[in-house]
Amino acid sequence: LIAEPLTYILNLSFQQGVVPSELKKAHVIPIHKGSDPIQFSNFRPISLLPVFSKMIERLLYNRLFCFFNSNNVL
After folding, report:
1. Of 1, 23, 26, 49, which shows the fewest CB atoms inside 10 Å?
2. Domain of life here (predicted)?
3. What is the pTM of this model?
């Protein structure tokens, strides 16, 4: 049901060499490390990315790895 539109977007993204801007956005959450919660330095950022952007990243990695491996680049 959802595979066809996702496949279309993935293929279009690879063909045009462009990632949709919505997939480049991350939701950043501050995580408290300890000590004084008033100090900004006591927090670390965690970026939550869309799952679909992680899929694109993994597919691109696999394609590049296969290309580099088959052309003796690695």
Report:
1. 1
2. Eukaryota
3. 0.60
